[in-house]
Amino acid sequence: MATAAVDKDEEDMIESVLNDMVNSIVRIEERGTSSIVDPHVGSRVCGTSADARKSDLEAKMRRVLRAYAVYNPRVGYCQGMGFLVRLLAEVADDEADIFWLFVGFSEPENNQNLYEPGMIVLQPYLSKFELLFSTHMPKLYSHFMAEGVHVATFCTRWFLTFFSSFETLAPTLVIRLLDIFIIDGWRIMFSVSLVILDELQQQLLKHDMEGILRILQFPRSFMPEVDESRQQQLVRHALAFSMSRTINSA
């Protein structure tokens, strides 16, 4: 009986946290566009009221996040998951597809989970990126070190959300990058991070820690708006980094 009560309390706690997380993510408004996904997704919701669509999205996210908490109770849920699940929910109709896509992204190598407690899986990726950052952009890296800005401070959010937070990159661009990730793996994650820093380098060099962190928290606001041509340019830039010898040998 006592065990049942504990289980019920834990279920209630999970439900409460999931509700808060989903509500906070769904409230984030996409800047300057009515659809955060490619045109065929926009046409699919045409004629549906915004409230009904929002309600359906919230329910779908809750079910997927709840299913994942049951599937992997040791990891459960953590900050960052909701952004990726939201984006996947926009491009896939079937909740099973959303769930297994999320599992695939969160367990990139050897069934190790990116959201592992203590960041034991994430930390090697951060260390590798730091080496790449210092190699490709030594001047900016030295400036960051002088200002006390460490890679984990900004890259943790980028990596855990797969850039799917609206403040980081345009969602249509993130969808393309996720497609590449399926083939290219973590090289594209490192490459995109380098592209963001490269695009913002001249601005970042002018700022102290506070200014640097403000820019890196909302990098999209400090970069030109991404149209189709600009999107292709950024993807080419990322792929060029991805194919470089230093990324493949680091």
TrEMBL record:
GO molecular function terms attached to this record: GTPase activator activity; small GTPase binding
Record domain Rab-GAP TBC: where: 1-185
Entry-linked InterPro entries: Rab-GAP-TBC_dom, Rab-GAP_TBC_sf, Rab_GAP_TBC_domain
Pfam family, one: RabGAP-TBC
Protein name: Rab-GAP TBC domain-containing protein
Organism: Hyaloperonospora arabidopsidis (strain Emoy2)
